[in-house]
Amino acid sequence: MKKFLVLLVVLMGSFMAGCSSEEGEAKGQGKGDAGNNGDQLILDLSIPEPEDAKFGLTATAFKEELEALTDNKMTVKIHGNNSLGGEREVFELMGLGSVDMAIQSAGPMGNWVPEFNIFDLPFLFDNTDHVYSVLDGSIGEELNEKFETATNVKILGWVENGFVATTSNNIINRVEDVKKMKIRVQENEIQIDTWKAYGAEPTPMAWTEVFTGLQQGVIDGHSNSAATIKSSKIYEVQDYVAEIEDRFSAAPISISTATFDRLTEEQQNAVLKAAEVAEVKGREFNKQKVEEALEFLKSEGITITSPDKESFKASAESVYTKWAPKLGEELIDKIRNTSY
Q1: Is the pLDDT of residue 53 over 50?
Q2: DSSP state letter for 40
Q3: Three-class SS of residue 219?
Q4: DSSP letters along 264-314, please?
Q5: Which of 16, 270, 282, 336 is in Cβ range 3.0-4.6 Å of 159 for a Cys bridge?
């Protein structure tokens, strides 16, 4: 009987210890509790580029600042090269709470908030200071709120791909030089209308097909950031780069509201502050990458021109005639009149 009682006490003690252990593990599973129990909270962060490109450097800056602010209790795992999905898919997954964060282009955002299509209008912005004044001011705040309401994705800050340049087989100095040119565009009506207005022949094409399309002569050129022109080795199949800069490609630092709402107030503040730092550094990284890319392209024998922008602007008026009523003439005027 004594042996039986001793065995019973041992078994009961083991059972209670197991329950206590399971309870402790359960408390550590909630994302909002992770910083409170000594565990490190890891957020997944998607980028469309390699980690050594501008968005990867921006993500690393965010990661380092977040770790410093939280005494290493919070960090991010960076997933490069769209490994978690394409940009539109990642926005959708964040809306569902399946992906925590992303730094990627604003291109798909017009699918949920049509006003974001304004960024495809030609020559809407004078320079990067003009863009920052819009994105960092009341206009940007209003658009951010609309996007969060529509998608459950919160915008924490804005970085960029920057103004686009155009690669080609022939030199481009004026709008007449792109007449009949087969130019690759995204599947975007404004981009199509813009290049038709210039006199070119726009061809919608997936990015994955562009290099081969240029190599085989299916298209004669495309528009992109100089940094991307370098990293994607477009210089191997094109001889000219024209800095037309008719379109600015913005890129948000964003987080799923499901993820953000699970964080404690202290953790939320850390995320917001880390994003402020990453925004400043991200803009600097893009500028550096563009400058490095232009120097590299020159060293590869690529001819870089600064075309007469006024000739392109004059041809683009028909685009505004069609799209301003759809996107909002008042908003376009507010953007154009934003001081910087």
Answers
A1: yes
A2: P
A3: coil
A4: -HHHHHHHHHHHHHHHHHHHHHHHHHHHHHHHHHHHTT-EEE---HHHHHH
A5: 282
Alpha helical stretches, state H, 103-206: 128-136, 138-151, 189-198
Distance (Å) of CA 181 to CA 167, 185, 194, 231, 303: 11, 12, 13, 24, 18
- What are the pLDDT digits (tens) for 28-46? 333 434 334 458 999 999 9
Burial class (CB in 10 A: 0-12, 13-18, 19+), 227: buried
Q: State how far the Cα of 245 lies from the Cα of 130, in Å rounded to an integer.
A: 14
Instruction: Give the separation between CA 49 and CA 81, rounded to whole angstroms.
Output: 5
Which phi and psi angles does 74 have, rounded to 5°?
A: -130, 145
Tokens read off for 181: 């040119």
Question: Dihedral sign, CA of 275, 332, 92, 256?
Answer: positive
**Contact by Cβ (8 Å): 153, 95:** yes
Total-model pTM: 0.84
Count of alpha carbons within 13 Å of 139, Cβ hemisphere only?
21
